[in-house]
Amino acid sequence: MESKTFKVPNIGCNGCVRTIQTEVAQVPGVKSVKADLPTKMVTVTWEGGVTWDAVKAKLIEIDYAPEESAA
Prior knowledge:
This protein has 71 residues and is α+β, with helices and mostly antiparallel strands. The protein has one domain (2-61): 2-Layer Sandwich (Alpha-Beta Plaits). It is 31% helix and 27% strand. The protein has two helices and three strands, in the order βαββα. It has helices at 14-25, 52-61, and strands spanning 2-7, 30-36, 41-46. Strands 1-3-2 form a three-stranded antiparallel beta sheet, covered by helices on one side. It is globular, with a radius of gyration of 11 Å.
């Protein structure tokens, strides 16, 4: 199982959090999605054939593009 934690700068309300958690959870292979309003951080855990690129594509599709960190 893989996971990634990243910042989504345009999380602005609890509706944003719900949208991210609901939409990303629908990507086949995604096991959990946790978005946090105060920190604007999201953690996604997945397994199977899904890749980070698929998760990232869904986030971009719903207008919550992840901020890529240098680390």
